[in-house]
Each structure stands twice: as C-alpha cells, then as structure tokens.
Amino acid sequence: MQSIFILLLTLGCISIVSTYRCYSCDGDLEDDCNDPFNATGGITDHHKEEAFPGEACTKTKLESKGGSTVERDTNSRGPYYCIGGQNGCKKYNRDGVTATVCCCTSDLCNGVSIVQQKLLTVFLTISTLAVFAYRWY
C-alpha cells in the first residue's frame, strides 16, 4: 500500500512541474476571444503561449453598462494578480466596472467558462485521505 502511495505522489509531482500553455488574446481586438470562447474560429497556435514556472493562465472579464470584453493571458504580473487563488476566480467592482479575474494552472485552462481543477490533484487528495483512513481504522 505504501508503494502505491509513493508512486501516486511521484506521478503527481511530475504533473506539477510539467509545463502548460495558455491562450493569449484580447476581446477588444478579436471577437473570438470573448465569451462564448471560440477556440476553433480565429484563435490559432499563435494565440497559445507557454507559461513559465510560477505563472498561471488568466482570464479577465470586464463588464460595464456598455458591454463586456475578455482578455486571456499568462500571469506575468506576479502572484498577487490571482486574487481568487491559483485555481479560482474573484469578482470585484470599481468605478462602475465589474471585473472577474480567474487563474488556473493546467493546459489551455483559460479557454473554458469555469476554471477547472486538475483531475490528478483531486485524485491524489482522495487517495491520501483513503490511505490515512485505512491506517487509522
């Protein structure tokens, strides 16, 4: 049982250090970048960039009375830009504009409406809890 746990932990670490790509586009310039996102329209490989270690993919949606626009990019502004956490969203209002900032850390994750959690992370968490429950009961 311990060897299975060590194997799962090792595979999880490999997944964490692997690189991933983010969509990079501006809805003001390209309508396919806005919601609903159209990855098969005008979005090409040119709009996909590799995230450096410590960076996250971002999706920022700005909404006002005049409409809305979306920007998708990598987080090159530092860790404080992910106000909702590395895999979450946060909404705030300022001067009549509602901004929703989402950050995520999996391949092309900023192309979906809801930020998705890594399946492997969830599996490892459940596996770890199962191992501890098995040992204690």
Automatic annotation (TrEMBL):
Recorded hits in Pfam families, A to Z, give: QVR
Q: Which residues form the signal peptide?
A: 1-19
UniProt keyword annotations, A-Z: Glycoprotein, Signal
The answer to whether the entry has keyword Isomerase is: no
| GO terms for biological process, alphabetical | regulation of synaptic transmission, cholinergic; sleep
The source's superkingdom equals Eukaryota
Q: Which InterPro entries match?
A: QVR-like, Sleep_regulator
Key word Signal present in the record? yes
> What is this protein's record name?
Protein sleepless
Please give the organism: Adineta steineri
Lineage here is: Eukaryota, Metazoa, Spiralia, Gnathifera, Rotifera
